[in-house]
Specification:
GO terms for molecular function: glutamine-fructose-6-phosphate transaminase (isomerizing) activity. By secondary structure, the protein is α/β, with parallel strands linked by helices. 43% of the residues lie in helices and 16% in strands. Helix 8 packs parallel to helix 12. Bound molecules: 6-O-phosphono-alpha-D-glucopyranose.
């Protein structure tokens, strides 16, 4: 088994470090840097959808939230659903393309949701890592995320590849909506693997020290807005899955509607801030709210906005396009979850009570 880990202590750490390679594989042949064109051959003649519904579970649901936001940004109405809820009470499909986002292609809830959608006449697409999986076989179309096998129960490289795959899908089915935006996205996707590598290369010492300081807290909160909202949810999920510590993620605007009651000087808050758009600036306001309650604040940022006076600790990721920055932030959060779990001596690759692929509803 040690050989399979290529010298890393855990499969999860190996897979975190495989992300630059996984992302290059995901992008290979799909991106033309010169023309700014994106082509996803897998999906053949899939037409621009009128509406989109995305169904998924766990980490894949967070990718679906990101995807839905991207579709809406290019003018296509889109909504992400937890597959278990969709399967229990399916919404009208109208003229929707229903996309199942599932690493394994075998998650029972996601398959049920896709079957419910198909039964109601929807066109379906699987975005998956596993060639020949049930989702790939049963859907009308399939797009492969090309991450390579993922052994660690906590999904890492497949989440990054799902975000990139959904971005590629959107550019290929809705091209030309905003050519400047597309060009900037293509350029930043081109640089993505290198930027992920630099997050991996730079951060370990800072993170070990941080984890040492923060361990033993009552709970850990993660906040972000816009594209950083699903990344906040994912950061908390990763953290709780492998550390067994209480962690919650919130779209930052929701803090004041309840979660703020839990914030004390013993609940560190990880705040995700990239770019300098309204989402980033409003998040600074939310950081002030938690600071006023004495919470230790760790800001993970690309440094575009000046955050030093809002933070006890600042973790920097490279500056890049607004759609891609959250991906780099996510890699940083994966490392934090991993280091905390290692510090607490947890079963990192096989956390208690969890399975890689859940085949019951
Ligand atoms: C399980 C795994 C999660 C995963 C979820 C959905 O709960 O432990 O890591 O995100 O299933 O899996 P899928 O294969 O459908 O992406």
């Amino acid at each position: 088994e040690q050989t399979g880990k290529s010298g890393y202590e855990h499969f999860m750490l190996k897979e975190i470090h495989e992300q630059p390679t996984a992302l290059r594989q995901c992008l290979s042949g799909r991106l033309d840097r010169l023309s700014g064109d994106v082509t996803v051959e897998d999906i053949g003649d899939l037409e621009t959808p009128v509406r989109v519904q995305l169904v998924a579970c766990g980490t894949s649901y967070h990718a679906a939230l990101y995807g839905a936001q991207r579709f809406r940004e290019v003018g296509i109405p889109a909504q992400a659903f937890l597959a278990s809820e969709y399967a229990t009470a399916p919404p009208p499909v109208d003229e929707s393309l229903v996309i199942g986002v599932t690493q394994s292609g075998e998650t029972a809830d996601t398959l049920s949701a896709l079957r419910a959608a198909k039964g109601r006449g929807a066109e379906t697409l699987a975005v998956t890592n596993v060639v020949g999986s049930t989702a790939a076989r049963e859907c009308d179309h399939v797009m492969y995320i090309r991450s390579g096998p993922e052994i660690g129960v906590a999904a890492t490289k497949t989440f990054s590849s799902q975000l990139v795959s959904l971005s590629l899908l959107i550019e290929s089915v809705a091209p030309g909506v905003d050519s400047e935006r597309t060009r900037a996205l293509v350029e930043s996707l081109w640089r993505l693997a290198g930027n992920v590598q630099s997050v991996l290369d730079n951060s370990l010492d800072d993170i070990e020290e941080l984890v040492d300081e923060l361990s033993g807290s009552d709970a850990y909160f993660f906040i972000g807005r816009g594209y950083n909202a699903p990344v906040a949810l994912e950061g908390a999920l990763k953290f709780k899955e492998i550390t067994y510590e209480h962690a919650e993620g919130f779209p930052a605007g929701e803090l004041k509607h309840g979660p703020l009651a839990l914030v004390t000087e013993n609940t560190p808050v990880f705040a995700l801030v990239t770019g300098d758009d309204a989402a980033a600036r409003k998040t600074l306001g939310n950081i002030k709210e938690v600071q006023a309650r004495g919470a230790p604040v760790v800001v993970v940022t690309d440094g575009v906005l000046e955050v030093e006076r809002f933070a006890d600790v600042v973790l920097r990721v490279p500056e890049t396009d607004g759609l891609v920055g959250p991906l780099l932030v996510n890699v940083q959060l994966q490392l934090i979850a991993y280091e905390m779990a290692a510090h607490l001596n947890r079963e990192i690759d096989k956390p208690r009570n969890l399975a890689k692929s859940v085949t019951v509803e």
